[in-house]
Write a structure and sequence with these properties.
Layout lengths: L4 E4 L5 H12 L3 E6 L2 H9 L3 E4 L5 H15 L4 E4 L14 H29 L2 E6 L12 H20 L5 E8 L6 H12 L8 H9 L14 H12 L6 E4 L1 H12 L2 H8 L3
Parallel strand pairs: 1-2, 1-4, 2-3, 4-5, 5-6, 6-7
Helix pairs in contact: 1-8, 3-4, 4-5
């Protein structure tokens, strides 16, 4: 392998898209993947080595890893970035909708990690970057499904780090706060698909606190993806990468409050967000 390679999931937009382009432009061999064929073709037209990969498909993952090993013999890093948000109050989220959230955000992440570790164990090294969230640290109303999926990622990552401590395989958790992307737009689509707003006890709150909220360009809490890419680069290039990377002021602030405040005190702050 002449240069470090990396497999990135969820490259159709946002952090995955920007990270793939940045690393490609800075010497990495990037395998950029997306779930939809039209996104794959767009990524190819932009100069990326792109492939169709649905993280909910074990065979898609196996085929992708086989392609990488056939081309490079080794795999340096994986960035488990694919995921989406399913808004809605817990009482408005059916078990099936919750299961769908976990299929992508958790089980897809785990399946790629599971298969990747077989390669990295054999070669004796590797980097695994798991995309969590500030909502894997604290919880907000109407984010129960997403919160739960990210809290689960936290548990897997914390355990996996301990199990790999005597190896040269490093696991880094990427806790991202608000970043300019299509995440919110896509989340609202899932909300409208899966939540019965008209019959919800939270109808008025949905209208005022979820559906009518717009992302602002000058929002002090919402940052460009470059703040995340900086930490991703460190996780890839540091001799010993950090086990956890907080991204954006919101993540640092809320993560700190989680450590110092009582649960009741923190709840009084979170209910206002």
């Amino acid at each position: 392998m002449n240069k470090k390679n990396i497999l990135i999931t969820g490259c159709s937009s946002g952090i995955g898209y920007d990270t793939a382009h940045y690393l490609h432009a800075n010497g990495y061999k990037v395998y950029a993947t997306a779930r939809k064929s039209e996104d794959v073709e767009r990524l190819k037209s932009e100069g990326l080595d792109a492939y169709k990969l649905d993280v909910c498909s074990e065979s898609d993952i196996s085929n992708m890893l086989n392609i990488i090993i056939e081309q490079d013999s080794e795999l340096f890093a994986v960035f488990n970035n694919a995921g989406y948000g399913q808004p809605g109050a817990v009482e408005d989220i059916t078990t099936e909708v919750l299961r769908e959230q976990f299929e992508t955000n958790l089980f897809g992440l785990h399946e790629l990690t599971y298969q990747t570790l077989k390669i990295m164990r054999k070669q004796g090294y590797g980097r695994i970057l798991q995309h969590s969230s500030v909502l894997g640290i604290i919880s907000l109303r109407f984010r129960g499904a997403y919160n739960a999926s990210k809290y689960a990622i936290e548990g897997l990552c914390d355990t996996l780090r301990l199990e790999l401590m005597d190896t040269n395989i490093y696991v880094s958790t990427i806790n991202t706060g608000p970043v300019h992307s299509d995440f919110r737009k896509n989340a609202i689509i899932k909300f409208k698909e899966n939540v019965d707003v008209e019959n919800s006890s939270y109808k008025s709150l949905y209208d005022t606190e979820l559906l009518s909220v717009k992302e602002k360009d000058d929002d002090m809490f919402t940052k460009k993806s470059s703040v995340v890419i900086k930490n991703i680069l460190d996780a890839l290039e540091a001799k010993k990468p950090k086990p956890r990377y907080y991204n954006t002021f919101a993540t640092h602030l809320l993560g700190s409050l989680k450590r110092v405040l009582t649960t009741s005190a923190l709840d009084k702050i979170l209910i206002k967000i």
